[in-house]
Amino acid sequence: MALTTPADLFDLPEGGEVSKRSLYDLIQYSKQPASTHWGGPDWRIGNTPQQGINWIGQPPGVRGVIIKTRPGSYVHDGWVDGEIDVYRYSFKARKDVVSHDELANRVLIDQPLQLYPVLLFTEAGSRWRFEGRFAVTEVADAFVVLRRETELAPAAVEPGEIVWREGRKRYVTHLLAERSRAMVDFLKGAGLGICDICDHDTSATYGVPVIDAHHRTPLSTWTGDHPVTAADIALVCPNCHRAVHAHMRQSSEGYDAVRQKIRAKLGEAG
Q: What is the per-residue DSSP string for 50-113?
């Protein structure tokens, strides 16, 4: 299967194979305007020296991430529980030290915010096998967990939410927690529409609950996998939810402190 321009990567069928040379040439020559692999300035493919993580386009205009991997080549790498829908992939490290600010790692951490696809290739002899489009569903210190897109129903982040501060990984992890299936199931079963902050009964106003889920527990207290329970969840209206995230981006305060601030402001305005 030949690859002429970077856009061809998005048309690959799951299970399709490309030669290592073909993908290598595409990555190298996508940066050269005179090359047949040139797709335009927004389609240049960035790469690390090891060639494991590549990104199509430059932040903030990344169109996708390419991962080429050999399951088991690093301690964390490989399919999870023998399934082919969940893959664990190690961050790039220099002398065994991982920096989340390094661009190759940052494009993986940013994926849940901008929702571009992760195009996963696994080694198949002299070729790369295209496993499909994946999304990041967990960000750990040394690796990310990728899940096949067909298994997901991700929610996009409002453009105003994409504002960076120190602690990018913590904020992204928080967003991923809010999208967890356990939380969605809880919301569907609860049938509640009253905002925990402004007390607005959205069910009474709109005839249906218009409500978001927010994690109460500060992520700084997490020591590993954290089971989601009803006690962890605050149901908030969309306006208050955005206000909570705006406060969180500016401080390290937890939900309860932010809730008090917003309620005090609403009291002043009322």
A: T-SEEEES-TTS--EEEEEE-TTSSTT-EEGGG-SSEEEEEPPEETTEE-TTSHHHHHHHTHHH
DSSP letter at 194 equals B
Produce one character per residue of 100-139: b if its CB has 16 or more CB atoms within 10 Å, e if not: beebbbbbbbbbbbbebbbbbbbeeeebbebbbbbbbbbb
Helices 238-250 and 255-269 cross at an angle (nearest 10°) of: 120
Where b means 16+ CB within 10 Å and e means fewer, 47-61 reads beeeebbbbbbeeee
Q: Tokens 């992520």 label which residue?
A: 219
pLDDT recorded at residue 160: 35
Burial of 79 by CB count in 10 Å (0-12 exposed, 13-18 middle, 19+ buried)? Answer: middle
**232 contacts: CB under 8 Å, gap ≥ 6:** 215, 216, 217, 226
Amino acid at 73: S
Which of the residue ranges 36-45, 65-74, 116-125, 181-190 would you say has the lowest mean pLDDT?
Answer: 181-190
The enclosing H or E element of 47 equals strand 45-47
Residue where the block lists tokens 């040139």: 38
pTM of the predicted model as reported, rounded to 2 decimal places: 0.63
Sign, CA torsion 235/240/245/250: negative
What is the 8-class DSSP label of residue 132?
Answer: E
Closest CA to 266 of 215, 218, 196, 177: 196
Between residues 170 and 213, which one has the greater pLDDT? 213
Within its chain, how far is the Cα of 140 from the centroid?
A: 12
Lookup: tokens for 113: 């915010």
| Alpha carbon distance 215, 127 (integer Å) | 43
